[in-house]
Write a structure and sequence with these properties.
Layout: H1 14-61, H2 68-100, E1 108-111, H3 112-129, E2 133-137, E3 144-147, H4 149-167, E4 172-180, E5 183-190, H5 212-217, H6 224-234, E6 238-244, E7 248-256
Parallel strand pairs: 2-4
Antiparallel strand pairs: 1-3, 4-5, 5-7, 6-7
Helix pairs in contact: 1-2, 2-6, 3-4, 4-6
The structure holds adenosine-5'-diphosphate.
């Protein structure tokens, strides 16, 4: 089922033509394989908490029927499992919505500093709970980008939350906003254990985690960075990940800024 493809200008030899057909089909198969893997992974991720819920229901109906203490404990775990399923479904829906809109470039003018202050405020309580200070450094003038405010909030909420979850033990997370020429670079730095180099290129794959048990313990779905990657791509931005084991990680997002003289930004936060 290899279809020879003729090059657009009629140039190229027969061998080249066949190779192009090959490459297209391979790409097509890869996409198909990714789709199949994704459905298998998503089903597995949903099945795990579901199996645990079914197990607890059976135990509550049987052996633990008259054990008030066990009932209390089990119901608490069951609530956690139900919340995990619901987070997973929310993330799956977000991902498919973002992918569906991948070709539409969001055009609202968004004040980046306002979004990041909002993220810091929203995650302040989690930071305090873990004894982590979230510092924010930004230029004195507002910096705006064309984008979708809620999606950008989501990107940085995810990055800061990861910094707290995986790198928070060091007590400090730093958010930086820096103008670089016509771009703005937003970075989220932690001083945690860092990530071994072989994992770094795979972190944005759906359901990829360095340590699945630890991610689950932290309430992770394994979809956070995949969502981040898709939103950044939709904003024609670039996501950078730098990490040194034992020293910490920096996740950065480069976006093109609106011209500085244009001050009419959306300040709603
Ligand atoms: P999760 O829901 O597991 O947090 P993400 O897609 O957000 O999923 O992240 C994928 C994995 O990347 C995490 O499970 C974790 O292993 C790793 N990771 C993300 N951020 C950091 C960080 N700041 N420091 C160390 N590891 C990180």
């Amino acid at each position: 089922d290899i279809v020879p493809v003729r090059s657009a200008e009629g140039r190229g030899t027969a061998t080249e033509a066949v190779l192009v057909g090959f490459a297209d089909l391979t790409a097509q198969r890869r996409v198909e394989q990714m789709r199949v893997d994704f459905i298998a992974n998503a089903s597995h991720e949903l099945r795990t908490p579901l199996a645990s819920l079914s197990g607890f229901i059976e135990t509550l109906q049987g052996p633990a029927r008259n054990d008030a203490g066990a009932r209390e404990r089990f119901l608490k775990i069951m609530g956690e499992q139900a919340r995990r399923m619901s987070r997973l479904i929310d993330d799956l829906l977000s991902l498919s919505r973002i992918e569906m809109n991948a070709h539409l470039r969001p055009e609202t003018k968004v004040d980046v500093t306002a979004v990041l202050s909002h993220v810091r405020d929203a995650l302040g309580p989690l930071g305090r709970e873990r004894g982590v200070e979230i510092a924010l450094e930004h230029p004195p003038q507002p910096v705006a980008v064309h984008g979708d405010r809620d999606e950008l909030f989501r990107v940085f909420e995810n990055l800061v939350e990861n910094a707290l979850k995986y790198g928070g033990a060091a007590g400090r997370v730093e958010i930086g906003i820096v103008r670089e020429g016509s771009d703005v670079v937003i970075s989220v730095r932690d001083y945690g254990p860092g990530i071994a180099p072989e994992h770094v290129p795979r972190l944005t794959e759906r359901f990829y985690r360095v340590d699945t048990a630890h991610s689950r313990e932290q309430g992770g779905t394994g979809l956070g960075l995949a969502i981040v990657k898709h939103i950044v791509a939709r904003h024609r931005g670039r996501l950078g990940i730098e990490s040194t084991p034992g020293e910490g990680s920096t996740f950065s997002v480069r976006l093109s800024a609106c011209p500085a003289d244009d001050t009419k930004t959306s300040t709603k936060s």
